[in-house]
Specification:
- This protein is mostly helical and 97 residues long.
- It contains six helices and no strands.
């Protein structure tokens, strides 16, 4: 479905987020990051794109980059429960607070 949305309207950032989320679930984290980057290029104020990008980077063991993306998501939407939880887990894993 997101492929059709992207084909019809390639500047639809949310479709790129959905594509990235699907790719991430399939274990294709590198491709997912590319989709999230495309979404961010279209709309840098999408917290879901930043948060999911952080999760995909984390899966690739690019921990600092992942945390930076989640931090960016929280600057946009500070009360996001999912991003707050992810940030906490990342910081614990990195040994910080």
């Amino acid at each position: 479905m997101f492929e059709q949305a992207i084909a019809q309207k390639p500047d639809f950032a949310e479709a790129w987020v959905n594509k990235g989320a699907t790719l991430m679930e399939l274990g294709r984290s590198e491709e997912a990051i590319e989709a999230f980057d495309q979404a961010i290029a279209l709309n840098e104020n999408l917290p879901e794109a930043w948060s999911n990008r952080g999760k995909a980077l984390w899966q690739l063991r690019r921990f600092e980059e992942g945390l930076a993306s989640v931090d960016r998501a929280l600057k946009i939407q500070p009360d996001s429960p999912a991003a707050l939880k992810l940030q906490q887990q990342m910081r614990q894993r990195l040994g910080g607070s």
